[in-house]
Amino acid sequence: MKDYITLQSLTFGGSGTSSFVPDRLNNPNGALYLNNAFYSVPSGVYFSGPFTVMGWLYIIEFTTDSAFLSFGNGASNDNIYLGLSNGGSPFYGIFSGSDELNCIGPGNALPLNIWVHYCGTWNGTYMAMYVNGTSVASATVSGQVKNVTRTQNYIGQWSWPGNPYANAYFDEIRIYNR
Length: 178
Description:
0% of the residues lie in helices and 52% in strands. By secondary structure, it is mostly beta strands. The protein has a single domain, classed as Jelly Rolls (Sandwich). Strand 9 and strand 10 form a beta hairpin.
């Protein structure tokens, strides 16, 4: 599992812009703004057992199925993802190879223009999604997440082609092996 990824290790993409903005505590240049853009995260083994994926998200605009983050090996291949539906409802999904183990979502939209803590967990048999520390969806999972190198890893974009980029601020994105 990777221990640390810096902004310098990311690759910028998309036709839009990226800039630094105040974070949720109003620290200058403490968060990343992506507008019709994304960052590629280096290939690596990010998931090798139970995990937690989390971060702070400040949504500027809902777009059709926009991504908060997506780690995988292409469309429907070893994907771990957190995203938003057209109406802003969060969803969280896990693939093992091409088998979707589960995709969960609460149906309630996240608010626009407010910092929200967004989190997905998996412990080997159970997955849960949290918004601002409150469990909003969960499911039993049959199957295992593969311990593989994922090569198509993104902040603000999907591993699936053709989906739009996010228009949001991102802060404190973390992946834990617990």
